[in-house]
Structure formats: C-alpha cells, structure tokens
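Worked problem 6 (solution included).
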Amino acid sequence: MPGKTAYVLTILLLAAAGGFLLKTSFTKEPSEAFEAPSVLFEAPDFSLPLYNEDKNLALSDYEGKTVILNFWATWCVSCRLEAPGLEKTWKAFKDQDVVLIGINLQETPKEIQKFVDEYGITYPIVIDKEAETVFKYGVRIVPTTIFINKEGLVVYVYEGLLNDEQLVSLIEYTRRSDKELA
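Solution. The predicted structure is:
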C-alpha cells in the first residue's frame, strides 16, 4: 500500500507541475514566460518563389519592417490549427509595418492553393523547394515562427503551435526590441 500511495502522489505532483508550466507559458509576456534569446543575430537574406506567381520574394524587400517568418507544411496538424490565428493577426498588423511571410516546405503550388483556399490565407507564401532557407534559419520542426525586428535582427524563434495571444505578444515584443536596441 505505501508503494501505491507514493506512486499516486508522484503522478499528481508531476501533473500539477506540468499544469503550472503550461499555464505560465500561455499567460505571460514572452519576456516573463520564455527565456529571451541570449544572442541576437542578423536574419539571413533569402529569395524564394511565390507559390502562385512567377516571381521571387526576398527578405531584403522588407528592410525597415518587422517581419514574421512562419515555416509550415500542409500535412502539419499544428500548422492547420495555427493558420486562422496567423491570418487574423496578419490582417490586424499588416498596416502597421508588420509583414508575415509563410514559408512552405517543398510542397506543390496545387497543395498550397488548396490550403490557402481552405483557410482564406492572404499573406504572401513562398516555397522553399531546396530547404535552403530552412537550413539557414536552423528550423527543426514545423511550425516554427521567427520574429525579425526592423533592424533585421532575429529576436525570437518559436518552435511549435502559437495561439493568437502568444503571436500578438511576440510581435509586440519584437517591435519593442527596436527601441531597446537603439
């Protein structure tokens, strides 16, 4: 009996700790809930083809703007869950010098178009056919969202599903970093 009690108490303690960590991660500002990056680095430039046009989009086209890069794939369940929030946030911030660029991982324009139609995506989407940009940014999982300030510095990398509140909070954090670095 004492062994069973210890086992149950251990499970309850682990569950409580996990719940605390989840609550903290989803309710605090990035600077409070997440460890801030210790090193800011210059965002590597790239030029990738738009999925639906015969032209390329380059990061350098958006110099002086806050840029959000979202690496994703149509087969990714978390990417599908995140898509409506990304679109909503894009619409809220696009007139405030914030740019959202979707970087798709090696899929066909037809697959991407189906996803765009399903979720009503209006922000620009490019295809990283050779995974060069994935490599440049060290992307390990999808979704991964990278926040670049107006100075062209990567100030935050978020791996995994972002909810609307986290996304807005990280955009504001990125925008504040411009003033803090000046």
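Discussion: Strands lie at 41-42, 47-49, 56-58, 66-72, 98-104, 125-127, 144-148, 153-159.
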